Amino acid sequence: MAKEKKLVEAITSMEEDFAQWYTDVVKKAELIDYSSVKGCMILKPAGYAIWENIQHELDRRFKETGVENVYMPLFIPESLLNKEKDHVEGFAPEVAWVTHGGLNPLQERLCVRPTSETLFCDFYKNIIQSYRDLPKVYNQWCSVVRWEKETRPFLRSREFLWQEGHTAHATEEEAEARTVQMLNLYADFCEEVLAMPVVRGQKTEKEKFAGAEATYTIEALMHDGKALQSGTSHNFGDGFAKAFGIQYTDKDNKLQYVHQTSWGMTTRLIGAVIMVHGDDSGLVLPPRIAPTQVMVIPIQQHKEGVLEKAEELKTRLAASGIRVKSDNSEKSPGFKFSEQEMRGIPIRIEIGPKDIQAGQCVLVRRDTREKTVVALEDLEAKTTELLETIQSEMFARAKAHRDAHIYDAHNYTEFTEIVNTKPGFIRGMWCGDQACEDKIKEDFAATSRCMPFNDQEQIATTCVCCGKPAHKLVYWGKAY
Ligand SMILES: [Zn+2]
Fold it and tell me: CA 144 → CA 8, 42, 158, 307, distances in Å?
C-alpha cells in the first residue's frame, strides 16, 4: 500500500504551486527524464508517443497542401550563418559551435543548427533558376539546438524536436498566402486535435522573427493564465533571397528574387497540452492525440473468466480502430486507476465478475470521472461515441476557461490592476510605438502576444500605455 499511495501523493496541487505541479506531472506520467547533458531532456516512451501522434497528424495535413519533406545537414558554416544580418544577430547568443573535427581545429567553425533558414537558402540558390522551378514547398522534421540559460521540460530545452517548413515562391502574394495558410493549419490542428483554443494574429515588430518581414502566431492560454506561443509562420519577403542571391528568370526572361516563408511547431505543444488540460491527478489527454485511448482494467482478476473477458474487450476495441491496452498486472485496481489517471488515458473500462454476469462493463471518463454502464454488445459504438464527446467537451471547457480569462484594459491604471491581479490575456489598444511595449515589459514582465486577425474590435481610441491615439488592438500577457 505504501508504494501505491506514493504515486498520487507525490503530485503538488495546481493551486498550491503550478510550476511544481507541471514538473511533477511530466515526471510522474513518465513523459521525460533528465539527462546528464544539462538542459537536454530524454523523451520517454509515453512522451515520445505523443510527439509521434502530433507528427503523424501534422505531416498528413502538410502533405494535403503540397508540402514535401527533405533533410538538411546538422551543421551550418559560420560564413553562411552570417549572410543575413538580422538573422545572425537574433540567434548568435544561443548558438553552439563545433570547432574541431577529431583532433584538428576546423578552418571554419560550424554551428549546430538553431534553425535552418540559411541552409535552405543556400540550397534554393542552387536549385532555383527558372519560374518553372517554383514554388518549392519543403519541410524537415529534425532537432535544433539553442543554448538557453534556463530550461524547462518541453517548454525550453537546449535541444528540441520540431518541424521547419521553408518555401520559395515567385510572387509576394503567393508567399503571403502560404504564410497565412500554414498559420491556419496550425490553429486548426491545435483546436481540432489538441482541443486547445488559440488566438491567431500577427507579432509586433519587436516580437517578430529575426529576419522576417512579418511573423504570424497562434497564442494559447495555459491553465495558470500564462500565454504560450504555440506555432509561428513567417513571411520573409525577398530579404533572404537578396542576402543569398536566390533569383529566377520569369516568363519575360527577367531576373527576379524569390519570396520566402518559414513556419514551425515544436515539442512545446506537449507542454501546452499538459498545462491546458491537466488536473491534480495528472495528465488529461485529448483522445485524438492520446497514444492509448482506452485502458481495460479487470476487477477481481483472479476470478474465473475475468482476464479472458478483459482481453476479449481489448481485442474488439482494437479491431474497431481504437488505441487500447489492458492492465493485467498484479497491481491492485486502485493503483491501476491512479496510474491510468496520471497518464491521462481518456477512458478506462472496468470489468469484473458481476459485470460479466450482467452482460455489461463500466466506462469511466478521465476528464470528468463520470461513469457509464454499457451493455457489452454496444461496446464499440459507445466507446467511439464517448471518445468524440470527450474530445469536444475538452475543447469547450478549455475555450470557456480561456474566454473567462480575457480582460479589457482602457488605460494604464486598468492595465496595472488587471496584470497584477488577474492572470490571463489583456486586450488593450496600442499606438504602434515600441517604447510602450518596452515599458509594459519593464513594469510587469508582460509582452505583446499578438495583434489578432479575427478580433479587431476598437475597445478604445487611445494607447493603453501612453494615451496617444491608437488603432491596433493587442493581446498582452505574461508568457512561457
Ligand atoms: Zn503607446
Answer: 35, 15, 8, 46
Are the C-beta atoms of residues 244 and 127 closer than 8 Å to each other? no
What pLDDT does residue 302 have? Answer: 93
- Judged against a pLDDT cut of 90, whether residue 61 lies above it is answered with yes
Distance (angstroms) between ligand 1 centre and the Cα of 85 equals 28
For the beta carbon of residue 393, count every other beta carbon within 10 angstroms. Answer: 14
Calculate how far, in angstroms, residue 473's C-alpha sits from the geometric centre of ligand 1: 12
List, in sequence order, every beta strand (DSSP E) within 224-321: 227-237, 247-249, 255-257, 259-266, 294-298
- Average pLDDT on 136-155 reads 95
Answer whether 310's CB lies under 8 Å from 251's CB.
no
Instruction: List, for residues 259-305, the tens digit of each pLDDT value.
Output: 999 999 999 999 999 999 999 999 999 999 999 999 999 999 999 99
Q: How far is the CA of 213 from the centre of ligand 1 (A)?
A: 22
Topology match between the domains 294-387 and 406-477: no
Prediction pTM value: 0.95
Indicate the class that CATH gives domain 406-477: alpha beta
- Report the topology of domain 2-277: BirA Bifunctional Protein; domain 2 (3.30.930)
CATH (one of 3.90.1720.10, 3.40.630.30, 3.40.50.800, 3.20.20.140) for 294-387: 3.40.50.800
